[in-house]
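Long-time lurker, first post. I've been practising inverse folding by hand and with some scripts of my own, and I keep getting stuck on stretches where the structure tokens seem ambiguous. Below is the full token string for one chain I'm working on. Before anyone asks, I'm not after the true native sequence, just a reasonable design that respects the backbone. If someone could post their per-position residues I'd love to compare against what I wrote down in my notebook.
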């Protein structure tokens, strides 16, 4: 697999952009490569050539020279991390250890050092005042970055220097980042430092366990389960593991008390998902723990597999799927109008089997759960609905309603504020927002 250009070493990136003949590169590019390799003599030599009138001086030229948004310090700490060049740039030239680069990645020197895996450079920058708590535009810190890259020693150093174990990023905590990338050792370190194993990502309600299961990283999932992860969380990790054929994770989840009789968002039991998408071994594994499903006539391993495959074949007929979905939606709407919310939720669930990502259907089912007084299920559907389209006002409206039912008034205000930005004329949502504001203050 080809190396991602942004993750490749700086000299290689320049080769791919500028060609292999370094003599033909702009002097600023050669300047950054000298910094990357820690060649102070070469760095000064190029700086003198750039200071054509000799007015600024070498030091000022070194400090001011950039290429593609990066300065010498970004290149040095992101390269070999040579401490001699770091000392020259910071102690002698006086370069700012917290200055963002102006490239699309927009990283600080500390982030460059973490990305490069340069522990000595990270330590040097921290000793010289680098801000360990500085956040990027998504709210992620250098600890998030180190966890995502699997830089275990750097994670330990950052934690020893007081880095926040959870962070404020809406994309997740460092533990989420390590789990979704499959960095087992880093997950272990974060858990040893008491990272919250059940922390939810606000934008999609993912826990670290969900992240590991979604990415199919069995060792990380096992560590999280052993650390006390909630095996019956919002996203139904057992159903996901069954659909992906993650046998070892299924075993761990069952041993930890995961509910095999809890359906996914389309009403399918884990054993049904295993029968369609995975292997006979997983069906056999789930069978002793699963209660008989009424519409499966032959309650045996073979009977379940045959039933699931037949049902899946029927769903593969596009015309039949569209007709079935349309009919079920209409029946669901009619049941909702009659205030038969239980039947409406069942019908919407059946329709979602044909199209699990139908945002309107998810919003409708969320309304059913609200009428039935189940705020948790209403929130699950609203979040899935918003995940499919973050700019749909109705998804924010339904999430706001669910949060209100769960008495999460502050979060409801945030969600409804965004919803009103998307649909300023929505009087019903506006009324709900002011109600949330009032309750929040109590």
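-- Answer (accepted) --
I ran through it position by position. Result:
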């Amino acid at each position: 697999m080809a190396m991602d250009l942004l993750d490749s070493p700086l000299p290689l990136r320049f080769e791919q952009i500028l060609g292999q003949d370094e003599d033909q590169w702009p002097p600023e590019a050669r300047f950054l490569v000298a910094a990357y390799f820690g060649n102070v003599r070469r760095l000064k030599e190029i700086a003198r050539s750039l200071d054509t009138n000799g007015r600024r001086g070498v030091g000022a030229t070194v400090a001011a020279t950039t290429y593609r948004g990066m300065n010498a310090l970004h290149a040095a700490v992101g390269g070999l991390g040579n401490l001699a060049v770091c000392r020259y740039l910071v102690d002698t030239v006086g370069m700012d250890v917290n200055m963002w680069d102006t490239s699309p990645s927009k990283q600080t020197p500390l982030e460059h050092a973490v990305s490069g895996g340069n522990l000595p450079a990270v330590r040097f920058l921290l000793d010289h005042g680098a801000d360990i708590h500085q956040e990027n535009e998504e709210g992620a810190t250098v600890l998030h970055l180190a966890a995502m890259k699997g830089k275990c020693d750097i994670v330990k150093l950052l934690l020893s220097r007081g880095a926040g174990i959870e962070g404020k990023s809406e994309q997740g905590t460092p533990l989420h980042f390590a789990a979704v990338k499959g960095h087992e050792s880093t997950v272990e370190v974060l858990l040893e430092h008491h990272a919250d194993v059940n922390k939810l990502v606000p934008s999609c309600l993912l826990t670290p366990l969900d992240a590991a299961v979604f990415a199919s990283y069995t060792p990380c999932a096992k560590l999280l389960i052993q650390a006390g992860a909630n095996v019956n969380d919002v996203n139904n990790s057992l159903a996901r593991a069954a659909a992906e054929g993650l046998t070892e994770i299924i075993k761990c989840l069952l041993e930890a008390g995961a509910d095999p009789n809890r359906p996914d968002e389309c009403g399918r039991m884990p054993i049904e998902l295993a029968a369609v998408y995975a292997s006979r071994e997983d069906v056999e594994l789930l069978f002793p723990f699963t209660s008989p499903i009424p519409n499966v006539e032959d309650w045996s391993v073979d009977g379940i597999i045959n039933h699931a495959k037949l049902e899946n074949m029927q769903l593969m007929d596009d015309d039949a799927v569209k007709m079935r979905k349309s009919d079920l939606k209409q029946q669901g709407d009619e049941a909702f109008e009659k205030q038969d919310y239980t039947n409406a939720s069942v019908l919407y669930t059946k329709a979602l089997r044909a199209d699990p990502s139908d945002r309107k259907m998810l919003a409708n089912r969320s309304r059913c759960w609200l009428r039935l007084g189940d705020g948790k299920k209403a929130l699950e559907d609203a979040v899935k609905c918003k995940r499919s389209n973050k700019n749909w006002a109705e998804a924010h409206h339904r999430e706001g309603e669910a949060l209100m039912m769960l008495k999460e008034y502050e979060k409801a205000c945030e969600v409804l504020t965004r919803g009103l930005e998307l649909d300023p004329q929505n009087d019903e949502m506006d009324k709900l927002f002011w109600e949330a504001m009032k309750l929040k203050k109590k």
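A couple of notes from the structure itself: The first strand starts at residue 66 and ends at 67. Residues 1-6 have pLDDT under 50 and may be disordered. Happy to go over any region you disagree with.
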